[in-house]
Description:
The protein is of the alpha/beta class.
Amino acid sequence: MNIFYLTPLRRTGLVAVAALMLNACAPAQDTPTPTTSVNVSRYVAVGDSYTAGVSAGGLTRTSQEYSFPNLIARQLQGASANAAFTQPLLEAGTGSGYFDLVDYPASGIPRTRRIAGQAVRRTVINPTACGGPDTVRLLERSKTASALPQNLGVPGLLLSQIETAGLGNETKATPGGAFNPYFERLLPAADSRTYLQAVTDAAATATFFTYFQGLDDLLPYVRSGGECGPFPNTSLTNLMKANARKVLDRLRAGGQPGIIAKLPALNTLPLLRLGKGLQLQARLQALNNDKALLYIEDPINLGPAQPITDDDYVLATAIPRVGKLTPVLVGTTTLMLPYGRDARNPLRDADVLDNFQELQRAKSVLDAYNNELENLAHNVYRLPEVDITNHRSALDLDGILFNNVADIISVNGVVYSSEPVRGNFFSLDYYSLTPRGNGLVANAFISAINKAYRANIPAVDVNNLPTVAH
């Protein structure tokens, strides 16, 4: 696989760079017989939405099949006798629903439609949920629920919930109750064991593991513009760190080898990146052929408007409404004013993650959590890590997947960027991955496995994967 960056500062010397980045899936090379110094016959994956395979705002059988753990498991086949990998697969055509692309207007923000999930057993509506009424959809139970799967990725699972009894028990499916329908699918009926207990049970027979968890603790806050979800503070930081250690203690209890992954920086997700303050303002000015500024509510007083800065991020989900005429009471007169492009009608705080308070709060928690994961990997468990924050090697998550706005990479001639769907990596919900994106994540893990465990597991040929998961 030939990989190189196409950033403005890296466009020279590309031939030399590409020559250094060849690996097992380059054209005309024979695929080696997979080998490794550790037993990978019983691989267990622990995590939340990314691990489960969420894509385009939902979980479907196809998105599960292209989850990065399943892609890793495919590449591990042949490296250990009797290697297998089980997932709590949905039936074909069922699931929680997903976003489908309608078109790409000139604004660069894709228009989507929601495809409803099928075979939903029942729904639970919480009318008083933060941000408006919320619906929990109970899906058909996994046919393998009598035995835990090896993919323990649970969408929406918070580290603060790993010891919540009944989190996967349908009796707790009440408005506002502590219940996760995806965890329920993994368990037998009326099972009240905690997620930590499930990890303990799965780890008892595991020979290898991956750990990639914690992003779902911060996404509700980010996706709501700081309105909902766990509040990012020292208490949340300490809880995430302590509970990550509890999970890893169970996974490592028998001395099992594994890989620990750190989390990506929040502002590398299209959810924020597409709405980066002054860059969004410039795009809108060019689109509308004017010089109108963007205004946001004062992040402290939530009253007077102030011009947006380049450290503020308009949520990608709110960008299609920017500039739309909406009624505003000015004095005693109702005027129709462009949303966000007039100081009298600024963007609401819920549509913006401001740098002054909200982003910095979330960033502080994420950075402290990543530092703890690095400490646990290096000093406590003596395990390799996949660092998606600092390094920029050929198969590093940050270097390839969560790249800066100007970064574009080419994999065997196919361009990957942060643009949803068209960039091949991120899906239509602005944060989860396409099958190809999951392939690149899988390759980052495989690269770490090969380096740490004297292995020669072949990389996934990502360009042969689809660009959507339905």
